[in-house]
Structure to design on (237 residues):
């Protein structure tokens, strides 16, 4: 599905170089739900940007279904993003002047594709927002806005969904709702998900947790591993 090989990212700010990723070998299989954790500045959000083709690495390769993203032009990466990748952000990033329906349809318009009204209403049902199609973002709670953002990210049936702190602005109850929703899309539809989170409760929804530290993968654990429960309890302590 998606793989990185020797991935490095160096930022040059004011003549000062900062190495954020220091040689990451990482892969996600089709239908997998992976949570990426780590302290601020550990490189996890930078990795997500690279996986989504929003930036290019300083060194190394990113392969999406065998296609090396770093070798593509910005225009080619944009086309790949619009057709193969869905994004969910902490801040929702809904367009305030568009209705819920129009926000969900936006990726289809951007890619020059026909808007599928039936698919939009099916997604609205799936995210428990039936009847909200004509409302605007300012009329919605934070949790409802994030549900719209998830529907928008999935309307073009992406191969992979990248979620950057999707519950970061929500309380525990609303966070649980969003995580249950992501889990349902993963379990029922086989949606591949990579989620960056600071919240171990959120990470517990994933098949695999990958822990970053200082630009490297420190450790990872899978749900079926014998030490999975111990891993969770150790970090919750």
């Amino acid at each position: 599905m998606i793989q990185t090989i020797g991935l490095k990212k160096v930022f040059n700010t004011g003549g000062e170089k900062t190495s954020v990723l220091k040689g990451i070998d990482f892969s996600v299989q089709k239908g997998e739900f992976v949570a990426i954790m780590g302290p601020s500045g550990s490189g996890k959000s930078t990795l997500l940007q690279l996986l989504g083709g929003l930036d290019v690495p300083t060194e190394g390769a990113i392969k999406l279904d065998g296609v090396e993203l770093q070798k593509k032009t910005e225009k080619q990466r944009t086309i790949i993003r619009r057709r193969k990748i869905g994004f969910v952000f902490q801040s929702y990033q809904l367009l305030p002047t568009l209705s819920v329906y129009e926000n969900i349809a936006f990726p289809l318009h951007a890619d020059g594709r026909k808007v599928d009204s039936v698919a939009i209403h099916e997604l609205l049902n799936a995210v428990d927002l039936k009847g909200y199609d004509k409302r605007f973002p300012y009329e919605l709670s934070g949790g409802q806005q994030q549900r719209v953002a998830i529907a928008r990210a999935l309307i073009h049936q992406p191969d992979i969904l990248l979620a950057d702190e999707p519950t970061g602005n929500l309380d525990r109850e609303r966070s649980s709702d969003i995580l249950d929703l992501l889990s349902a899309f993963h379990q029922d539809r086989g949606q591949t998900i990579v989620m960056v989170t600071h919240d171990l409760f959120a990470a517990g929804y994933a098949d695999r947790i990958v822990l970053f530290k200082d630009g490297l993968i420190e450790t990872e654990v899978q749900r079926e591993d014998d030490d999975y429960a111990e891993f969770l309890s150790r970090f919750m302590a």
Q: What stands out?
A: The chain has one domain: 2-236. The beta strands are 2-13, 16-28, 33-37, 59-64, 67-68, 85-89, 160-164, 192-196, 208-213, 216-222. The chain has a mean pLDDT of 93.
